[in-house]
């Protein structure tokens, strides 16, 4: 029961406060990770062994610290709640995606492009309204999995150490896990570890999206389209999410000046501002469903 109550408290704190405006722990961690990358991957010449070493130095000491703090008498429960709160990004996700939908509804394409540029790594300067909506909808589905559901999953599995391990690993994948000349070798470990940590949560998220949306279509898209996606975890999440919403996502996109022909995801009309909002609502309903199942399971077990 304590895990369920701590989970509810962490999610509630995120909903109430959002991300800390100043001195967010992940911002400080990002600066530390950048210094490690400069040390172990200078000029993009780091090997896989250097990436493993850098990952270990970045993640393991802080995970051990979280373990020790969570064991402290009287305040260990507070450490657990704060760890989950710092790892979650539910309110922040909404604060980033909804302005894109609002700008599209106003017909302000330039503002929509600017806003969606905060969410995605693809080039946004020449996107039309449909492409902007598609990018934002994809982002809310995928980031909902990474920044919300997976963090809660690892908190339930292993408490503060689990959520810290996951969130730091996911951050390193976002920083180092690129398939380019600079990071292909050095970032290999960060990318593979993140894939492993997200494997089970991603499939639970895909199932959640399917249950809360157009279930048959979501399951069909998951089965048929997910294997065509590059990422083993983003594929199920985004294919199921697109099917649950009944919209078409995926397709060609430009990353760092290079055109990538991506598979189509979902079925139905092209994404629009309403699809962005419905995607955001799908993530919100999903997190409440998870909390409900967790509380009911804890009560039954007790």
Automatic annotation (TrEMBL):
<feature type="transmembrane region" description="Helical">
    <location>
        <begin position="147"/>
        <end position="166"/>
    </location>
</feature>
<keyword id="KW-0169">Cobalamin biosynthesis</keyword>
<dbReference type="InterPro" id="IPR004485">
    <property type="entry name" value="Cobalamin_biosynth_CobD/CbiB"/>
</dbReference>
<comment type="function">
    <text>Converts cobyric acid to cobinamide by the addition of aminopropanol on the F carboxylic group.</text>
</comment>
<dbReference type="GO" id="GO:0048472">
    <property type="term" value="F:threonine-phosphate decarboxylase activity"/>
</dbReference>
<keyword id="KW-0472">Membrane</keyword>
<keyword id="KW-0812">Transmembrane</keyword>
<comment type="pathway">
    <text>Cofactor biosynthesis; adenosylcobalamin biosynthesis.</text>
</comment>
<keyword id="KW-1133">Transmembrane helix</keyword>
<dbReference type="GO" id="GO:0015420">
    <property type="term" value="F:ABC-type vitamin B12 transporter activity"/>
</dbReference>
<dbReference type="GO" id="GO:0009236">
    <property type="term" value="P:cobalamin biosynthetic process"/>
</dbReference>
<comment type="similarity">
    <text>Belongs to the CobD/CbiB family.</text>
</comment>
<feature type="transmembrane region" description="Helical">
    <location>
        <begin position="52"/>
        <end position="72"/>
    </location>
</feature>
<protein>
    <recommendedName>
        <fullName>Cobalamin biosynthesis protein CobD</fullName>
    </recommendedName>
</protein>
<keyword id="KW-1003">Cell membrane</keyword>
<dbReference type="GO" id="GO:0005886">
    <property type="term" value="C:plasma membrane"/>
</dbReference>
<dbReference type="Pfam" id="PF03186">
    <property type="entry name" value="CobD_Cbib"/>
</dbReference>
<feature type="transmembrane region" description="Helical">
    <location>
        <begin position="282"/>
        <end position="301"/>
    </location>
</feature>
């Amino acid at each position: 029961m304590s895990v369920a109550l701590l989970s509810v408290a962490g999610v509630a704190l995120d909903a109430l406060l959002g991300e800390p405006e100043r001195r967010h722990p992940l911002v400080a961690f990002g600066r530390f990770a950048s210094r490690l990358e400069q040390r172990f991957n200078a000029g993009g010449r780091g090997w896989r062994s250097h990436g493993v070493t850098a990952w270990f130095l970045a993640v393991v000491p802080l995970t051990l610290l979280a373990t020790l703090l969570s064991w402290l008498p009287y305040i260990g429960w507070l450490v657990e709640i704060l760890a989950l709160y710092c790892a979650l990004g539910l309110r922040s996700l909404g604060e980033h995606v909804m302005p894109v939908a609002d700008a599209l509804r106003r017909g302000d394409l330039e503002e929509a492009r600017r806003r969606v540029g905060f969410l995605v790594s693809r080039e946004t300067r020449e996107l039309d309204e449909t492409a902007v909506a598609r990018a934002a909808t994809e982002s809310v589905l995928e980031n909902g999995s990474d920044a919300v559901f997976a963090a809660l999953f690892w908190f339930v599995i292993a408490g503060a150490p689990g959520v810290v391990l996951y969130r730091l690993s996911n951050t390193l994948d976002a920083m180092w896990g690129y398939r380019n000349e600079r990071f292909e070798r050095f970032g290999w470990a960060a990318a593979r570890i993140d894939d492993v940590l997200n494997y089970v949560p991603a499939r639970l998220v895909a199932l959640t999206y399917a249950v809360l949306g157009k279930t048959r279509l979501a399951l069909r898209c998951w089965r048929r389209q997910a294997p065509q996606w590059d990422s083993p975890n983003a594929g199920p999440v985004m294919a199921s999410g697109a099917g649950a919403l009944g919209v078409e996502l995926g397709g060609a996109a430009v990353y760092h000046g290079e055109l990538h022909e991506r598979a189509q995801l979902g079925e139905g009309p092209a994404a629009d501002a309403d699809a962005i909002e419905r995607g955001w609502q799908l993530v919100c309903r999903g997190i409440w469903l998870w909390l409900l199942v967790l509380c009911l399971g804890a009560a039954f077990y007790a």
